[in-house]
Amino acid sequence: MSIFGKKYFGIDISDNAIKAMELSGSFSSATLNSYGNLDLQTKIIKNGQVVNKKLLTEAIKQAIAQTQPKKISTTSCLFALPESKLILTHVKISKKIQQENLNKEILQKVQEIIPFQLKEIYYDYKTVLDYEDYYEILFAAVQKDILNDFIEVFKNANLDLEIVDFESACMVRSLIGNCNMNDAYAIIDIGGRTTIISIYDYCNIRFTNNISIAGNTFTESIATKWDLSFQEAEEFKKSYGLDPVAEEGKVMLVLQKTIQELLAAVKKDINYYQDKTGRKISKIILCGGSALMPKISDYLAKNINITSEIGNPFTKIKSQQKITDKIFYATVAGLALRGLEKNPHKLGINLLKNIK
Ligand SMILES: Nc1ncnc2c1ncn2[C@@H]1O[C@H](COP(=O)(O)OP(=O)(O)OP(=O)(O)O)[C@@H](O)[C@H]1O
Ligand SMILES: [Mg+2]
Predict the structure, then answer these.
(1) Is the CB–ligand 1 distance for residue 214 below 6 Å?
(2) How many A from CA of 216 to the centre of ligand 1?
(3) Are residues 289 and 141 part of one domain?
(4) What is the C-alpha separation between 291 and 296, in angstroms, rounded?
(5) 115: cis peptide before it, omega within 30°?
(6) CA neighbours within 13 Å on the CB side: how many for 51?
(7) What is the number of structural domains in the chain?
(8) What share of the chain is helix, strand, coil (3-state, %, to 5)?
(9) Integer angstrom CA distances of residue 226 from 3, 229, 236, 255, 259
(10) What is the CA radius of gyration of the chain?
(11) Does 288 contact ligand 1 (Cβ within 6 A)?
(12) pTM score
């Protein structure tokens, strides 16, 4: 560690892009050193899984080399597992269980819920709520094969992978300010392939779900309707989106069916959570590239009837330069911020924890 504090970088890999960000300092005083986004060619990652290790290794090296305003200068990194590959569940554990039997009890309970044997997964867990007579435990896991491929790629790229986190935990870290036990928010990350909805309540993640409707689906619906190429349809989507006035609302009308399907899924999750817990979601925080779609925030607020805003992942990060399209970096910013925490390896879920 230097006199300037720690230095860590995060790496967020989707089917379409690699985002990298290096921060230095401390969690309460983080400074942006480097950041960047590299578009990925197809068939390197498919549905969140590595397809071509060699090409991914090269792409990671390239993504690191071309960050702005300078190249990433540390090899210490954190990785956010694509949420669609994460197995996440909550279990309740009675406080009557003896401390030395807790681990066994948690694993036994989890086994009843998840469709994998413990020997097939890497896992970690943490207590998210401490009730009068039980603990609520968040258990996260990934199939070994899936993470092994990423681990191998990081090694081949000469990186020191120290922590494997998951996307929604990272978004919470970058997008939400101080913990307030009364706040219950829905963070909705609308990316290219998937939408992740995470419900943050009592200062913790209480629910997450992946919905396979996102930016690509929007573009495809325009391309199909007007017989356009994907690229041409992207331009229409980015220029007019859900604006009811622009181009007489024609693009919005084409997008209507897809966006309504997405909203129905989001509403279902929000209602499920609210009904189950008796809590009220007071705000939607949007992130992911599709949050840039014109008027999407207004559209959501009106149709779901909950205040909606576009998040800012840079509120905890000092930066010399002006960053455009900040919202792309919500996951990777939260990941790099974790590196600056006092005890980043133990602080949250680390799927590397039980790997010998
Ligand atoms: N100005 C814009 N208007 C509408 N959509 C946009 C705009 N800019 C980018 N997008 C969309 O954002 C999506 C990419 O967002 P993002 O980078 O968050 O996704 P990703 O992390 O690569 O994918 P995922 O998380 O789904 O695996 C694409 O569908 C792209 O078309
Ligand atoms: Mg993403």
Answers:
(1) yes
(2) 8
(3) no
(4) 7
(5) no
(6) 12
(7) 2
(8) 40, 30, 30
(9) 58, 9, 11, 12, 17
(10) 20
(11) yes
(12) 0.95
Digit-coded pLDDT (tens) for 252-301: 999 999 999 999 999 999 999 999 999 999 999 999 999 999 999 999 99
Q: What's the CA gap between 193 and 216, in Å, rounded?
A: 6
CA distance 295 to 303: 12
> How does pLDDT run across 194-243, given as a tens digit for each residue?
999 999 999 999 999 999 999 999 999 999 999 999 999 999 999 999 99
Do 216 and 170 fall into the same domain?
no
Q: What distance in Å separates the CA atoms of residue 87 and residue 141, rounded to the nearest whole number?
A: 5
Cβ count within 10 A of residue 302: 11
Q: Are residues 160 and 63 in the same domain?
A: yes
Task: Find out whether the beta carbon of 337 lies less than 6 Å from any atom of ligand 1.
Answer: no
Whether residues 302 and 324 fall in one domain: no
pLDDT at 4: 55
Q: Tell how strand 184-190 and strand 283-287 pair up.
A: parallel
Query: Shortest CA distance to 28 belongs to which of 336, 340, 330?
Result: 340
Domain that includes residue 261, residue range: 184-310
3 state DSSP class of 188 = strand
Put residue 52 in one of left, alpha, beta given phi > 0 → left and psi -120 to 50 → alpha: beta
